[in-house]
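Subgroup meeting minutes
Present: P.N., E.W., G.H.
Scribe: E.W.

1. P.N. recapped why we're keeping a running log of single-chain structure predictions: easier to compare across weeks, and new members can see raw inputs and outputs side by side.
2. G.H. added today's entry (246 aa).
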Amino acid sequence: YSDKLVLAMSRAKPVSERENPELHRIIENLAITAGLPKPRIYLINDPAPNAFATGRNKEHAAVAVTRGLLERLDRTELEGVLAHELSHIGNRDMLISTIVVVLAGMVAIVSDMFLRMTFFGGLRSNDRDSRGNALVMALALIGAILAPLAAMLIRLAVSRRREFLADASGVLLTRYPDGLASALKKIAADPRPMTHATNATAHLFFENPFKADAGTGEKRTPWIVRLFMTHPPIEDRIRALQRLER
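Output recorded in log:
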């Protein structure tokens, strides 16, 4: 039920074909091109332009777009964003992200267990081994702190690489890199954060919904900031799309 939970947390409402035939037509055409079943379509009543895809597999997938996305983007830009989201479905990124999150959680649990075993084992040791045990306990404490951090960094790195892959896969569907690049610039330049986005759902969105680093997409993001980002910097995504165009 992860898709239903995410849609409920984002206040997304289903959109019928009668309410927005153009949106349904674009998604249906892209889904046919990608060889995917047409996903369920939802609308988030939020002025910030953004979108996300969710669902455990392609047969139970859903795509949600914000009102701001439909208002701000033209057809080619909207096609680029929707092709990106359908590529997440086709590439099974929801499944991959779930596996990565579980593995990262396992690393944290194992490191915590090792710390507890070392600590309680050290309490039962005699005085002759106290110095050696203190060193082992210190190393275990450092490992318990660094292991979950390393797991989190790996999870974020995987998330960023999947965004690059979805950009490239989306361009293969539309055959028009400029549309997606233009959409990225518009969304990055919009300063409004999403109202109902959370840390738990931020990685699902097309672009960072918190807008902590909103700009034109031309500035350079410091490397230390990049390590903790769920999405690649806008300038890197645009540069990658420009290379595809050549």
